[in-house]
Design goal:
Layout (H helix, E strand, L loop, with lengths): L1 H12 L9 H15 L3 E4 L23 E5 L4 H10 L4 E6 L8 H8 L3 E4 L4 H17 L5 E6 L13 H6 L2 E4 L6 E5 L3 H16 L3 E5 L3 H17 L9 H6 L6 E8 L1 H4 L9 E6 L9 H14 L6 H9 L6
Parallel strand pairs: 1-2, 2-3, 3-5, 4-5, 7-8, 7-9, 9-10
Antiparallel strand pairs: 6-8
Helix pairs in contact: 1-2, 1-5, 2-5, 7-11, 11-12
Pfam families: Transketolase_C_1
InterPro entries: PDH/Transketolase, Transketo_C/PFOR_II, Transketolase-like_C_2
Protein name: Pyruvate dehydrogenase
Length: 327
């Protein structure tokens, strides 16, 4: 029954024109479509309480009948934990972070919860692909757990080509690889826009070329890499297994700068699995908020200087040029 309802949902959402709206607007539009189809539970609720009774949960008795799409505003891990428990840790939970920025504990709780597959989509197209994948994985294929999407209202012009859709769901796909690539820049969610701007500044101001990757889920990349590493350790005579992260970055030894608007620990997860100089940038790395494009440029130049690729004095010149201060 649930699988049939989920397939009806997928059919209703498939075939839409390329979405240039923000992730938040895109998911709200998808929710409207699902609500009209009557094949999914669409819950729009918010609460400042960590108590289970503070969340709209009238649907809890019937979650086996239809897929669940829950649009909410949870600011802390305690609030989201309460919501996840009430939904039996099943469904697609979409958090409006644009108007309700999360506390540092929330993304860390998401990465450590094995039942959660967390995503931070940068564009409406990424958000659409993730919701459709969640409907298929959870309700058609019957996989356990829940999907989580952090949604913002910033529009993105980054297209998601058909051949990149599966790669995006695995955690990363290229959006700019038309140059030699002195460095590799990885960005997620709202931080992707700053990462793209940083690539332009590197080329314009410093004659440094950059490959740019969108990373909708650093956590999914790290989990798959950890599973491959564990399998290789336990099967020393078998052919080694790779992972999506290593497959994407295998063609170069250029430094990798990974950027997130969340705490640096979110991208630190990748460090053990990147076979190249690696720099993680997040909220608190160089400034209290998410790193600006200028700090991304400086991090890239510093990584190149450490490799002897550029003069180390250029790093200080860049900090002066962009009026950056460090404490």
């Amino acid at each position: 029954m649930t699988a049939q309802s989920a397939q009806h949902c997928i059919n209703a959402l498939t075939g839409a024109a390329p979405d240039t709206r923000s992730p938040l607007d895109t998911v709200i539009s998808m929710a409207d479509t699902l609500e009209s189809s009557r094949n999914a539970w669409v819950i729009r609720g918010q609460s400042s309480s960590r108590r289970v009774g503070g969340w709209p949960t009238w649907f809890a008795r019937n979650t086996a009948e239809k897929p669940l799409l829950y649009l909410h505003r949870a600011a802390s891990s305690a609030q989201l934990c309460a919501l996840a428990q009430e939904t039996a840790q099943r469904g697609i939970l979409c958090n409006d972070i644009q108007n309700n920025p999360s506390q540092p504990s929330l993304p860390l709780w998401l990465t450590s919860n094995p039942r959660c597959t967390p995503y931070d989509p940068a564009s409406g197209e990424e958000a659409r692909a993730i919701v459709l994948a969640g409907l298929r994985a959870l309700y058609v294929d019957g996989k356990p757990g829940f999907y989580y999407l952090a949604l913002h209202d910033q529009h993105s012009v980054v297209p998601l080509a058909g051949q990149d859709r599966e790669a995006a769901l695995k955690g990363m796909y290229p959006i700019r690889r038309d140059t030699a690539g002195d460095v590799r820049l990885l960005g997620a969610g709202r931080a992707l826009a700053e990462t793209v701007h940083a690539a332009h500044l590197l080329e314009q101001d410093w004659h440094v070329t950059a490959h740019v990757w969108s990373c909708p889920s650093y956590t999914r990349l790290a989990r798959e890499a950890a599973m491959a590493q564990r399998w290789n350790r336990l099967h020393p005579l078998a052919p080694k297994r790779s992972c999506h992260l290593r497959d994407c970055l295998a063609d170069s030894a250029a430094p990798v700068i990974a950027v997130t608007g969340y705490p640096q620990a979110i991208v630190d997860q990748l460090s053990a699995y990147v076979d190249a100089p690696f720099v993680a940038l997040g909220a608190g790395s160089v400034q209290a908020t998410a790193p600006s494009r200028y700090w991304v440029v400086v991090a890239a130049l510093k990584a190149l200087a450490d490799e002897g690729r550029v003069d180390a004095r250029q790093v200080e010149v860049a900090m002066d040029r962009y009026a950056l201060k460090c404490n």
